[in-house]
Structure formats: C-alpha cells, structure tokens
C-alpha cells in the first residue's frame, strides 16, 4: 500500500470517529441548562467540563495534569452515544454505578474508540479507563469536576433534576459531595454555601 493510500485510510478512520462523536449532541441529560429552558446535552456537558478543568486548575491537588484532565473530560461521556445518560440520582442512586451500566459503557468505549487507528484508539481507551477508575490524581480531579457542574446547573435553574428525583441534602452529600470533596475540597465547601439554602427552604 502506498504512503498516500495509508494516509487516506487513516483519515477515513479519524473522521469516522469524529462524525460518530457528533451523535453526543443528541444525547439529552437529566440536568437542565442554566436558565431551565431545556435539558443540557452531553456534548455541552463535556465541553463545559473541559473549561472547568482549565479554569479551576489552581485548585487541583499536587500531581494533577490539568491538560490531561481536559482530554479525559472531552471523551468521558462518548459512551453515552450507545448507553445514554444515566442520571446520578436515578433508581435511588443505584443505577449509575451498577454492573450492568458499567459493562454497557465498557462495550461502548471499545466500539467507539475502535473506530480510530489502533495507536490513537488505544490511547483514548486507556484515558477513558483511567477516568473511570478514578485512582490517579488527574482522574480524581476530573471526576470531581464531572460531579460539581450539574450541582451548579440545578441551583441556577431552580432545582432541576433534584426536583425530578426528590433529592435530599443527605443524598446529595453521599452521591455527589463526597466525590467532589475527594478532589476539590475547597470547591465543595464553596458550593455548599450556595446550594444549602435551597434544601433548607424545603426541609430537605
């Protein structure tokens, strides 16, 4: 095979992946946008988190690579093209981390990253797996951002998915707060001062 043919074949694979990724714009999340006018889509969520990773880098723990976190967050929800959004508060908080969902997301990652040339596909697959495991400082940072952004959108929109799922303060702390505080304790302290009155006013 000529070099030109190889280059063309690689471009075919790169764009096959990129065009597949466009489908993330059609995946609707449980969280509304800031003004409550509609639901956020997963592509918007991913872009916003990449921006969070850059802007909040000064809050990151030692050992965090903010640019690597940006990469993680740009790809972390691509699996939702196949699986859809699984809200953190759905099924009493049990659905999101279930074995069934994890297995489905793993299969989706292999399919989607498998569209790429093997070298790049393997790199992105490993990056996605690092994010999911949440064991490295960078993955913990990225996971904390992933949890905190919907909280702020719910607060801005007047309750959002908290209303849909009858979320209490204790549930929010268990399902979200502990994960945010793991990587961004000062950020969670700040966020709590903003959202606690909403729950207090409703006796939640």
Automatic annotation (TrEMBL):
Q: Which PANTHER family match?
A: 5'-DEOXYNUCLEOTIDASE HDDC2
- Organism, by scientific name, is Rhodobacter capsulatus
Segments spanning the bilayer are none
Q: Which UniProt keywords apply?
A: Hydrolase, Metal-binding
Q: Which GO terms describe its cellular component?
A: cytoplasm
The protein's matches in InterPro entries, at most eight in alphabetical order, are given as: HD_domain (IPR006674), YfbR/HDDC2 (IPR039356)
| A GO molecular-function descriptor | metal ion binding
Q: Which Gene3D superfamilies does the record associate with it? A: Hypothetical protein af1432
Q: Domain HD spans what residues?
A: 21-188
**Name by which UniProt lists this protein:** Putative hydrolases of HD superfamily
């Amino acid at each position: 095979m000529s070099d030109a043919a190889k280059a063309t074949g690689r471009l075919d694979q790169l764009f096959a992946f990129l065009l597949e990724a466009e489908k993330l714009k059609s995946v609707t999340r449980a969280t509304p946008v800031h003004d409550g006018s509609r639901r956020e889509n997963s592509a918007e969520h991913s872009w916003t988190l990449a921006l969070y990773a850059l802007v909040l880098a000064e809050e990151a723990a030692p050992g965090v690579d903010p640019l690597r976190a940006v990469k993680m967050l740009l790809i972390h929800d691509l699996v939702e093209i196949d699986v859809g959004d699984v809200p953190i508060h759905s099924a009493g908080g049990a659905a999101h981390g279930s074995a069934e969902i994890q297995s489905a997301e793993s299969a989706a990652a292999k399919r989607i990253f498998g569209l790429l040339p093997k070298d790049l596909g393997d790199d992105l697959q490993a990056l996605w797996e690092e994010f999911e495991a949440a064991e490295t400082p960078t993955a913990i940072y990225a996971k904390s951002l992933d949890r905190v952004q919907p909280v702020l959108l719910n607060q801005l929109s007047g309750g959002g998915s908290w209303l849909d799922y009858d979320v209490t303060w204790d549930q929010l702390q268990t399902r979200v707060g502990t994960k945010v505080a793991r990587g961004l304790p000062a950020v969670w302290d700040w966020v709590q001062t903003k959202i606690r009155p909403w729950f207090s006013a409703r006796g939640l």
